[in-house]
Write a structure and sequence with these properties.
Layout: E1 10-12, H1 13-20, H2 24-33, E2 39-41, E3 44-48, H3 49-59
Antiparallel strand pairs: 1-3, 2-3
Helix pairs in contact: 1-2
Length: about 60
């Protein structure tokens, strides 16, 4: 298995919410439902930027 040397930046729930233009509660719901992978750090979560990009790409649809 090949391993990439590039590291994905870890984002806070608030940063993900801002990026996706949704509320923080929506991000928490996505994490709880298992739709968005997250890492638990103490009492908070961190989400890999690559995982956010993959989540958005998987749900992207063309208008029209």
């Amino acid at each position: 298995m090949a391993q990439s040397n590039a590291r994905s930046r870890l984002l806070t729930v608030a940063e993900v919410a801002s990026l996706m233009r949704v509320s923080t509660m929506t991000v928490y719901r996505l994490i709880k439902a298992g739709d968005l992978a997250a890492i638990r750090v103490g009492k908070s979560y961190r989400i890999k930027e690559d995982d956010v990009d993959a989540f958005i790409a998987a749900r992207y649809t063309e208008a029209g």
